[in-house]
Amino acid sequence: MNVPFNKPYLTGNELSYIEKAVKMGKISGNGYFTKKCQQFFEENFGFNKCLLTSSCTDALEMAAILLDIKSGDEVIVPSYTFVSSANAFVLRGAKIVFLDSLEDHPGMDVDKIESLISPKTKAIVVVHYAGVPVDMAKVMDLANRFSIKVVEDAAQAIDISFQGKALGGVGHLGTFSFHETKNLQCGEGGMLTINDPGLKKRAEIIWEKGTDRAAFFRGEVNKYGWVDLGSSFLPSEVTAAFLWAQLENLQRIQSRRSQIWHDYSGFLASLDRSYIPKIQHLPYLELLRNELDKIQEEFSPIVLQKDPGNYHMFYMLFPSLESRTKFSESLKSKGILSVFHYQALHQSEFIKAYQGIDNTPLPNAEIFADTLLRLPFFYELPEVSSSCI
């Protein structure tokens, strides 16, 4: 048996759209497919302005430049997140103030943000872990009261809303990832959403290497030049063409991922072993549950992910690092690849060297770093019929 952790899904139109982009004669970026993708997000998700980027990391770095983050500024970031959420602001000289996770979910504990705000706080980075919405009403209330900007790291949170508004469109800025492990993917790609109208013009300049080149191509200026900070954040039209093939199939992809999440949840949570029909592909999930039963005889409790979010992942929480390691290695020996997620960033050697050791305890983030395990999750994952749950 061989079940990888991830397998990038292809809709079938990626190569034909890439061919079309090449034949159109403009493949360097900000062309036909880039504009189609950006328009799709603006029209379907209500984002004020969208700019495709080469990665979510690039989108975060754009956000840091756009907010004029500099040495002496403080930026609040959850500890349990990918390094880019913090690194983008470290690159501008900021001090990172780390926030703990909730007790029952790896997402950030919004109720602890206010205690971390100081006169130096310039921004709050909100991470919607596993596509589960953070309480943005509380975050934006704090941001308004203390005049702080909010950057939503929605890398895992495409196609889900908070109080009727798409995630990535609530804060002043939002960032998305289209890495091959995400719901929608183009190998490596990202997007910045600019929800504060006052930031739109400068965002486009930063996106275009610090020039007003985009305005020039629209005929708004008679020549373009270097007018601000910036870098080469645009993806090529090849990347955008690939992404367009995914966007056309967004609802189908999300529907399939929803089925996978609920199959995992129902099948692994079921205690009734009296009747399990033998259907195609069932040995994979039956083996997974058998291994879970074995580990629970020695270690308990093991907790399954409760909130599906946007069906980005399915994770399990083990009672200890030892039990997680034992279960993961057992699955690997049978050809099933499961992976743990982040190291708590406040414990990293780099951040200790960069800004000194901070003894503020963040126990929840540390627990999730040791106990969370992600199971294989991709469109073509062997499925289980709901009839056997």
Automatic annotation (TrEMBL):
E.C. number(s) listed in UniProt: 2.6.1.59
Domain of life per record: Bacteria
UniProt keywords, alphabetically: Aminotransferase, Pyridoxal phosphate, Transferase
InterPro entries: DegT/StrS_aminotransferase, PyrdxlP-dep_Trfase, PyrdxlP-dep_Trfase_major, WecE-like
Class in the EC hierarchy, top level: transferase
UniProt-listed Pfam families: DegT_DnrJ_EryC1
UniProt GO MF annotations: dTDP-4-amino-4,6-dideoxygalactose transaminase activity
Keyword Transferase in annotation: yes
Annotated SUPFAM superfamilies: PLP-dependent transferases
PANTHER family linked to this entry: DTDP-4-AMINO-4,6-DIDEOXYGALACTOSE TRANSAMINASE, TRANSAMINASE
Family, similarity comment: Belongs to the DegT/DnrJ/EryC1 family.
UniProt-recorded name of the protein: dTDP-4-amino-4,6-dideoxygalactose transaminase
Gene name for this UniProt entry: rffA
